[in-house]
Design a protein that fits this description.
Length: 422
């Protein structure tokens, strides 16, 4: 498990370095926000388009090989970007094409990683593994902007891209020592399109999954609004740029604490905890909205703790959610079902960021945040209406799951858990 976590931590750091490096490279070369938007969109669009296809690939081939290929492809794209930047000023068409390759590799790697974790780590250790992966990702997101910015200023963006390529190469090499169990690819008797349709049928069969993913999509959309409008409200009403830095840093710390603690919490009903973790994001939305209306009603001393509580909830949510998917979704469909989850998450937040400013120009900054606060709470707590969500129980001490109301668990995984408990 340590080898898996180290490799994925390297990949997470490399992934987190890319946006800052690309942003500084394009802005330094062109000074154009339009050019930057083209490059960033070139990475996002292939990622979204290819995710359903990537889910089929993750179920059709060994997850270890798919992740290995994705890491190598991302590393090659970043190495090419580094060479391009070292040769001279950045050229937008070349950077956009290489960014598209990176986005495609991210699409294929994302659902395969979920299957890889399910195959390498079994039983109660999965929650601890997912929690550690969450901590690694949080640390990467916190450290990467400063690291990339410092390297770009000291040596140039080309060297930052080459460092990123090296990290992807390291993450790829760690896969060689892993021994996944129970992750044999599905029998390839069906055509690719048939497997894609079968994956959608399997997804629809899990009503608890669809309900929870809908809630996650709403809070990702709301996060796009908050990350766009929040800094404006903080600067205007909460004390300036320092206030936003305090809020953002408190949220980062909270997410790390939540992810670290998730592996140690004895949660008997993980989906109930996931529902409340997602609903907690309504707290900072309401606080920021109130601050925009009346700063005295929601000062920094109110807004910062609200954001802290929300990010703490999300830090706990992510490992619990990943572990639940790996436990309840059959392994031979985990890539396809998980790809729909990733698609909603990857698409919703950029959409929120894109429409936040135009909506706020019409309604003001407070109204959309207050409306979204209600929607986030309602969409995430709505899952509690389902028996499949309320009655999903695990033994927090590491024993087998006592029931599967959705009927969607992996019987082989449950059998292994029973043997482990014995």
């Amino acid at each position: 498990m340590r080898r898996l976590i180290f490799g994925r931590a390297c990949a997470a750091l490399a992934t987190a370095l890319i946006p800052t490096t690309l942003t500084l490279a394009v802005v330094r070369a062109t000074g154009s926000s339009g050019a930057l938007g083209v490059v960033l969109a070139a990475e996002l669009v292939p990622m979204l388009v290819l995710l359903p296809v990537a889910g089929v690939v993750a179920d059709r081939f060994p997850a270890q090989r798919v992740v290995f290929a994705a890491d190598l492809l991302r590393g090659a794209a970043q190495a090419a970007i580094g060479v391009e930047l070292l040769r001279g000023p950045a050229r937008v068409p070349e950077l956009a094409a290489l960014a598209a390759v990176t986005g495609a590799a991210v699409a294929f790697g994302t659902p395969a990683v979920r299957r890889l974790v399910a195959g390498v780590v079994e039983g109660a250790d999965r929650l601890r593994a997912n929690a550690r992966l969450g901590v690694a990702e949080g640390l990467a997101q916190m450290a990467a902007p400063a690291a990339a910015g410092g390297l770009v200023l000291a040596a140039g963006p080309g060297w930052s891209s080459l460092l990123t390529a090296g990290l992807f190469a390291v993450s790829a090499t760690t896969l060689g020592g892993l021994a996944p169990r129970g992750t044999a690819p599905s029998v390839e008797r069906e055509r690719f399109t048939a497997q894609l349709r079968e994956g959608w049928r399997e997804t629809r069969r899990h009503t608890w999954f669809l309900a929870m993913v809908a809630g996650h999509g709403v809070w990702h959309l709301a996060a796009g609004f908050l990350l766009t409008l929040g800094p404006v409200i903080a600067v205007r009403h909460l004390g300036g740029e320092t206030a936003w830095v305090v809020i953002a840093q408190s949220g980062t710390a909270a997410m790390l604490i939540g992810a670290f603690g998730a592996g140690r919490l004895r949660v008997r009903r993980p989906l109930v905890a996931v529902a409340f973790g997602g609903a907690a994001y309504g707290l900072p939305l309401a606080a920021f909205g109130a601050a925009a209306l009346a700063p005295s009603a929601a000062p920094l001393a109110v807004v910062a703790p609200a954001y802290f509580a929300a990010m703490l909830g999300l830090g706990v949510l992510n490992p619990l959610w990943e572990t639940t998917l790996q436990r309840r979704i059959p392994q031979d469909a985990l890539g396809r079902v998980g790809s729909f989850d990733a698609l909603i998450s990857f698409a919703s937040r950029p959409l929120g960021m894109a429409v936040a400013a135009p909506v706020a120009a019409v309604t003001g900054t407070a109204a959309p945040l207050l409306v979204l606060a209600v929607l986030v709470a309602a969409a995430n707590l709505a899952g509690l209406l389902l028996t499949d969500v309320r009655d999903d129980r695990v033994d927090p001490l590491g024993g087998p799951r006592r029931d599967d109301p959705a009927g969607g668990g992996d019987d082989r995984a449950v059998g292994r858990l029973v043997r482990d408990a014995d």
